[in-house]
Amino acid sequence: QVQLVESGGGLVQAGGSLRLSCAASKNILSINTMGWYRQAPGKQRELVATISNGGSINYADSVKGRFTISRDNAKNTVYLQMNSLKPEDTAVYYCNADGYMVLGRPFTSWGQGTQVTVSS
Length: 120
Known about the structure:
Blueprint: E1 4-7, E2 10-13, E3 18-24, E4 28-39, E5 46-52, E6 57-59, E7 67-72, E8 77-82, E9 91-101, E10 106-110, E11 114-119
Parallel strand pairs: 2-11
Antiparallel strand pairs: 1-3, 3-8, 4-5, 4-9, 5-6, 7-8, 9-10, 9-11
């Protein structure tokens, strides 16, 4: 199975910035969509942003204009630049990716999650 390793979470004051990274393991033939989701305490996991291998991007309305998703296909890595953070952005952020492993086997994987806490 493909492993996704996240980094970059932490504690920041409201108005601050953080950058999340998520790198996929080896044995990957191609990745279709990579994205970020988040889950706050007592709430369901929700989409934050996704980016296709062609560069098509989708953002949740709540983060438009503040967050930027990007990817480096050569490194099988996706990033999430988060600016103007608000306390309501506090959540565990999860990376997601789907595609094909070597030998053509499809995969869908989730990262282990990284905590983002925004203080007021």
